[in-house]
Amino acid sequence: MIETFSAILLIAGSIFTLIAAIGIIRFPDIYMRKSASAKASTFGVSLIALSVILINLNLIIAIKLLAILFLLFLTIPIGSQVLARAAIKMKVKFWDNTKINQLEDK
């Protein structure tokens, strides 16, 4: 039962990571690309780490993986925000179909 649930988490995490990779390639501007890389890949890596925790059932490995997940959830949004701010300061153009730019006057 645990192996089945772990396999489902592993497959779901791999799919989310694949979606993030496709989003990085296919999205038209840097702002959408950073969103895909920040959200989908974080969720995918989280599911994969939870799968590893379930399959091993080792306390030391679980603590290490949970610490890694904590650091990922702490640093990836900050890095994504810094990349977006740097792109805005460098005046990287938005996609042509972007309608709202909340930072236009700043």
Please provide a written account of the structure.
The protein has 106 residues and is mostly helical. It has one domain. The chain is built from 3 helices and no strands. The chain is elongated. The termini are far apart.
Describe the structure in brief.
The chain has helices at residues 2-26, 30-56, 59-89. By secondary structure, the protein is mostly helical.
Task: Jot down its keywords.
single chain; mainly alpha; 106 residues; 3 helices
What's the helix and strand layout?
Layout: H1 2-26, H2 30-56, H3 59-89
Integer-rounded radius of gyration: 17 Å
Count of distinct strands = 0
Q: Average the pLDDT over all residues and give the rounded result.
A: 87
Query: What characterizes the major β-sheet?
Result: none
Estimate what percentage of residues fall within beta strands. under 5%
How would you spell out the order of helices and strands?
HHH
Number of helices: 3
Percent helix range: over 70%
The N- and C-terminal alpha carbons lie at a distance of 54 Å
Instruction: List low-pLDDT spans.
Output: none
Principal-axis shape equals elongated
Overall domain count = 1
> What is the structural class?
mainly alpha
